[in-house]
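Reopening closed ticket. The problem is back. First fold of the pair:
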Amino acid sequence: MARSWLVLIVAVGLVLYVEPFRGSPPEPDVSVNGTDIGVTSGSYCWNGLLIDQCADSTYSTPLDMTADQTPAVVKPGEKIEVAFNDGPAPERIQTEQWLKDATNKTVQLKNEQLTVPNKKGLYIYHVYGWWKQGDGNVAFSVQVK
């Protein structure tokens, strides 16, 4: 009898971990020194067990995505954690750094962290994730002071 309950608990745990009923890609938890940084989601496509959907956002660039955000204030050279804790981790991630003049470059996410520049200013980060079930992206802003 106890063994049956254990099997049932493990099975339910696996179903919840895999999240087959998810209708959109997981968003990363973004933080600096334990303080959360809000993100804005962009367009995505996701193929769940019961729901397959694509959602197009009205944003044309990461600058648009973060226009209404209050940038998180960070110190020069500080590390920002970008971790996918709510659902499956992406198979592939690409991170970009944008400036107000719309120039951008790819930056490395190492051990779920990225390092902000030493130069003061406003920086926008755009994180793309790709999974077997689909893709999605988020953006957030920081002010280096």
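Second fold of the pair, where the issue appears:
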Amino acid sequence: MRKISAYLIITLFIGVVCLPALIVIVGSNFEPLFQAEDPPQKLFQEQPTQPGELTIQVWHHQEKQIREMPLEEYVAGVVAAEMPASFEPEALKAQAVIARTYALGQTLTSGGRGCDNHPSADICTSDQHCQAWISREDVEEKWSEQKREEYWGKIVSAVQGTQGMVVTYHGEPVDAVFHSTCGGHTDNSEEVWSASAPYLKGVECSYCQHSPWAQKETIYSLNEFSELMSHFPKASPVSAYSTPTFLSVNRSSTERLMTLQVNDLTLTGHELRNLLSLPSTRVSWKVEQNKIVFTTKGFGHGVGLCQYGADGMAKEGYDYREILKHYYQGVDVIPIKSPAG
């Protein structure tokens, strides 16, 4: 998921009192999508839109057309696409809140800028631009028959259990950025991107050690490395990198690679990561005979919610609000108000 650059004001409740288990947005004519007696498997199956229900315009990049869908249905599809359904329920809830926060920050009817790749849409389903989204039918094809009902039920329960909840900072929706695995510490936003956000500050995270990306080795032969380096703009011929020398290495406060020089070529950490298909910029290396071994910690940009960390926190008994407030500093987790309310 890409980073949002603007912070958009959404009308929010000022007072939040004890919320019932089923969250209904008070003071508006927002009709709840979920009904307590509805079994999870009946939800998000061609349901008609209820009066006052929040809907969004979603550009489906595979169908190449706009779909109008209820917000909560959209959120379920994002959770299914962006986080393993095997994760703990509270981690799935945290992902649902983040997906909703991002979506509402984008919607044109709430004053958002919409999807700048598709001007008539609020958001698109491409994970390279907005958020990944997948239909129930498509995602169930990836699950075993034994897990389909359980997994979809968990996702719906996560959306139902957080209906209408968003993350805000001083009354504005946060940049709802997240990544797979931080590898021990998240990063300050200004050390990854140019913009600084007071709530996107690096925090220690000992909860993502069960991630397959906690530490990983990527090995290239010197010939493979030389070939890849030669494809970079302004690079010298292949032979120039057959004996690589790494110079002028600059790192962030959490040891993410900022810039480095390889022989005559200067790259950023992100450029090296993309060039070599590395999981993250928390990377070290060593040259061994005719190969280079790159050791990475984590997967993704490292800012905001660490998904495997959220799962680890949930395993230790933290609820979704506590998870979100750990990864986003000084924020509130509160219900939104329908534009019609």
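Update: turned out to be a display glitch only; the data is intact. Confidence is low (pLDDT under 50) at residues 2-49. The longest strand covers residues 55-60. Please close again.
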